[in-house]
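User: Could you go from structure to sequence for me? I need the amino acid at each position, not a summary. Structure tokens:
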């Protein structure tokens, strides 16, 4: 049996899904990160999670894995030396310390570009260049998924065009634009390939350590939110996916791309179509700040979901928002707080649903394909009360997802990459 492994790195943990040639799940595993995560312990934690999850797959299944792909959180980045050792602590997806460089960036990048955001990969790269203790041409700038894949295949400096979008890579022309080339950046930018592209076989010592076949392929991955989109089964223009994870991420499959930095909107390439969307800093992390999982389940069952809450919040854990409002200084709004916890939770769920609806309305106003239905991924997809509330605001069908785990979408990329390689080999031998 041929099996394919997808590895998903989110904000609160990592997950693996193993599928067969028919897309049936053969194995799953989860790894929760310790909280709070100390920055300097992140990389050790990532490696431990990756290797632990693979080793937990039954040995017989591991021997049947033909390809692996990894996804990571968008714009989580790090700087490495010439042998792939991290030089500084990584900067997470929501790290806004680059806000101090926004005025400089506006003189570099075209107006209204995706990178004009305090948390973009390029903003973080410029911060590294100004603040890192080691920034020569022997250093490499990598995304989280790039580094994790490097641990498996040993090829330094390769990324996919989903992760590279916020680095400034031109996904329409499939090259770095001239204005990036003109910067003469004093570190190696990653070579960019399409998601699912076969990169290399596993390093022999890694294959032995993890109990995998040495000819197992490692393929280019993607971001966690795009992996979640792929897992749902959404395929047609007008279909959208809302990821209700630690943050709120909207993706609408559109025939035309939309890029508008004023609102934190960007478009990922997906074959001949475009994933248009944005990511808000609101979401599950805010809910878990106020409630335990058990409380969320219990209180959600007490909410009258068909009645709108009068509370109008903008739930954030700290100042700063990306989409549908792009304002690094936007203040959280979670007051007034009612005496009854159930009313407070109702207000939070209602307010996040309003932000979601506002995001989709904005995408369509700017020219994206009109929305026809919304799939849901992430932990929030399990909350039926929230689904009802969201349905009131979205006014389109909320569709059942084929699969909710981002790791499933990444496993699909691994299968696609394996099939690409061996289809090509078959053609070459004819």
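Assistant: Here is the amino acid at each position, in order:
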């Amino acid at each position: 049996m041929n099996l394919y492994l997808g590895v998903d790195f989110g904000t609160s943990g990592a997950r693996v899904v193993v599928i067969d040639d028919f897309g049936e799940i053969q194995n799953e595993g989860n790894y929760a990160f310790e909280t709070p995560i100390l920055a300097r312990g992140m990389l050790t934690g990532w490696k431990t999670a990756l290797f632990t999850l693979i080793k937990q797959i039954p040995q017989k299944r591991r021997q049947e894995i033909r390809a692996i792909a990894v996804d990571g959180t968008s714009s989580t980045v790090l700087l490495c030396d010439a042998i792939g050792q991290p030089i500084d602590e990584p900067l997470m997806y929501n790290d806004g310390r680059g806000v101090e460089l926004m005025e400089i960036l506006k003189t570099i990048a075209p107006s209204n570009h995706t990178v004009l955001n305090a948390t973009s990969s390029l903003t973080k790269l410029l911060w590294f260049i100004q603040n890192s203790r080691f920034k020569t041409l022997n250093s490499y700038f990598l995304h989280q998924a790039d580094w994790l894949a490097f641990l498996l295949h040993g090829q330094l400096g390769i990324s996919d065009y989903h992760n590279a979008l916020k680095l400034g890579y031109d996904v329409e022309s499939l090259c770095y634009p001239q204005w990036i080339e003109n910067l003469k950046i004093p570190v190696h930018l990653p070579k960019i390939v399409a998601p699912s592209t076969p990169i290399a076989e596993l390093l022999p010592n890694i294959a032995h350590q993890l109990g995998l076949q040495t000819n197992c392929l490692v393929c280019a991955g993607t971001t966690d939110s795009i992996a979640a989109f792929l897992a749902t089964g959404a395929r047609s223009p007008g279909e959208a996916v809302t990821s209700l994870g630690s943050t709120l991420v909207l993706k609408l499959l559109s025939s035309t791309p939309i890029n508008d930095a004023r609102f934190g909107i960007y478009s990922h390439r997906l074959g001949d179509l475009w994933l248009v969307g944005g990511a808000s800093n609101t979401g599950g992390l805010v809910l878990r700040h106020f409630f335990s999982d058990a409380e969320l389940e219990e209180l959600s069952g007490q909410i009258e979901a068909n009645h709108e809450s009068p509370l109008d919040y903008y739930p954030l854990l700290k100042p700063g928002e990306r989409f549908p409002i792009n304002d690094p200084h936007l203040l959280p709004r979670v007051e007034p707080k009612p005496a009854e916890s159930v009313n407070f939770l109702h207000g939070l769920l209602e307010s996040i649903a309003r932000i979601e609806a506002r995001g989709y309305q904005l995408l369509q106003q700017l020219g994206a394909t009109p929305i026809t239905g919304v799939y849901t991924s992430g932990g929030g997809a399990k909350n039926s009360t929230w689904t009802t509330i969201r349905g009131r605001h979205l006014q389109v069908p909320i569709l059942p997802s084929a699969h909710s785990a981002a790791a499933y979408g990444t496993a699909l990329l691994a299968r696609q990459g394996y099939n690409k390689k061996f289809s090509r080999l078959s053609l070459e031998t004819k």
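One structural detail worth keeping in mind: Residues 198 and 281 are 33 Å apart (CA to CA).
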